[in-house]
Amino acid sequence: MVRTNISSKGQITIPQIFRQRMALTGKQEVEVDQMADGTVVVRPVASILDLAGSVTLNQPLLSPQEERRQARLIMARQAAKRGLPT
Questions:
Q1: What is the pLDDT along the chain (86 residues), one digit of tens a residue?
Q2: What is the count of structural domains for the chain?
Q3: Long-range CB contacts for residues 72-77, cutoff 8 Å, separation at least 24
Q4: Domain range spanning residue 19?
Q5: Residue 26 belongs to a domain with what CATH number?
């Protein structure tokens, strides 16, 4: 068990050993929750950067020109279904 103090502003310093174990960095957001028994739990909030590389694609990325071409084809098909001129 490690002791720490609460500042006059209500801030608590998380001891270095816990910051290292939890891989916390400066300016990182954390969630603080109180359990039914009064225990306070601190959890790191996942950053969008933590998700980098976690999504795999089933097909290769398209060039911007190819994306526009395919979007135009889809819009033309939808317009044709509605009886609008393409």
A1: 899 999 999 999 999 999 999 989 888 899 999 999 999 999 999 877 777 777 777 877 888 999 999 999 999 998 888 887 76
A2: 1
A3: none
A4: 1-48
A5: 2.10.260.10
